[in-house]
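Now for one record:
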Amino acid sequence: MIRRSFRMPRLLNSLAVALQMMPRGGRILILVVAALTSSLLLVSFGGSLSTLEERLGSLGWTLAPDESLEQRLTIVAIDEKSIAQVGAWPWPREEMARLTRALNQADVQLQLHDIVYSEPGAGDPELLAALEESRGAVIAQVPVLQSDQVVSVGLLTHPVSGASCQQVAAKTDSYLAPYAGFSSVPKGHITPLISSDGAVRQVPAFICVDQKLYPTLAISALLQSIDNDNWEVVLQEGRNAFGPSKTLQLASYPGLEVPLDADGNLRISFQKSPGTFQAVSAVDVMNGDVDPDLLENAWVLVGATAFGIGDIVPTPYSGVAPGVEIQARILSSLLDSSTPYTPRISSVLLGLLSFIYAGILYILAGARDRVSAYCLPLAGVLLPLLTLTLHMQLLASSNLWIGWLYPALFSILGAGLLLLLEQKRLRTDRSRVFNNLNSYLPSDVAREIAFSLPSSSINARRCDVTLLSADLRNFAAFGEARPPEESAAVLHFFFTRAAEIIEKFGGRIQEFKGDGLLAVWDRQDATAARKALTAAREMQRTIDNDRLPQHPPSGLEPLALGIGIEQGPALIGSIGPANRRTHTLLGDTVTVTLRIQEMTANLAQPILIGECAARQLSDFSLESQGSYLLSGLRIPHCLFALPARDVVQRKLSETVNLKVIKGGRSQ
């Protein structure tokens, strides 16, 4: 939980930084973050992720296994049938001698006993004699790895020469070996490397005990089959970039090179299907009930397969495979020179593949919004599958275990983070556009436009409103005599301060037009009328009397604020073609309000109120200004104004020093 809370702010900070950068730089930063995060995940959860990589990586074997029958090897299984007829395991040495003699009589070329004869028994001389009479025999010994238990049973024999313990990683002082009476019989170890999930995927080619290297059973079988006396090996570092980290050569087996990893371990091949290994029951061999062709001149692996014996390991094919099958797989791949390995350049290849994926993701992220939105998630799925497919193809065709996890993890994280970045950037851009749109239009109108498809039809609704029209009188003449920058400064102040006041009293700006504005309250009642009048008086007090320039250029009248207020129905909405819409407020109420505002100059009143709004303001003691035929209209309208005592008089002694921020000309 602590790690998660520590990493999430970093990820969010990276996204925030990427958003502030240019799009290209932001995408590169996100890809770098994805690469570092992938490396961090591999370091932090290496065990679990390694298991995932191994299990899915072995699909290259299991999806298309080699079904060709393995005719060089035959497994003699001590199975349930044998135990039922001969007796419980372990068998007396006399029975093992009987089995060995039966194999000798079947003319077996080499018999490998996946069995440790650690304790002396009554029939040892008989068994030893049978082994020595065979054409070739190797028995098992077990140096103990991955255990805290210290044991020293029997006598380890038959180490190799020509290599040193410094060249391998598997070292131990514990072992379980045949007792000394079997010292003349060649031996090989059957110690596997058990992964965290219990599977056996590698076996040490050699294990160092007391500064001597003891070979695995399969390598001992090769040495014994060629030259019983020459167990010299050459273990050297790999030199080819596409070759293994280490190679093993047998002095008595020219031309054979066994690929090993940096620790000197063999990777077990699961290319062959379990059904390709021929197995016969041990009791059938002892009774002579076996096809002679299965044993004559064959290499035989003798081992326990009965479920109750406990020599069971999981494989990609099954969770309950006998251990002797593992030995058969190792020996078969050695005979075929098809031992899988990881090339020395694998990390570079995975890095190059990740770099190519980064380029693909970068291009997709920079595509159009819809392409990016659909293709980035698709790439996050397809690129890992492509990596896994490439790994499986190389494994099946060339026995190369390249790996696939890092590019797959990088592509998933990279696609996800880039998608998150682009969506965040898109949301930010849309929010910026909406905010800009909102600065030009009322918020509800801006929202409707932002989230609706363009239309060429009229989109308007009828509503009751209270309107306020405010205009700067004499501004045209003022602008003619002053620099445009100064006029812009006056208008900017007027619009900004008027908008603050109107929004303060619950209204909204419908539009700024020229040197005037039109504000709206959504209802036609006394409350809306009072708010509009209060806003008008506040505008008169803080803008007209206190802030507009009091000393206009020579020959010009001073600027003054005229405000008209009226209530009534109106049509509000958008009209025009789909490619050029305009938001508007239409109706007789709008026209009347604008004409009332124009009458403020004629009647020398800063605020005039129409008869509909005046009926809602009975408590203000409004004074009638008479009935007038407004410009462009046919029906006379009564106009009202505030009593003289309620009108704030201009303070001619106060002026405002409006500062032009940029531009203008000196006088």
Remarks:
- Confidence is low (pLDDT under 50) at residues 1-8, 650-667.
- The CA atoms of residues 440 and 511 lie 8 Å apart.
- The chain has three domains: 2-44+348-433, 61-335, 453-646.
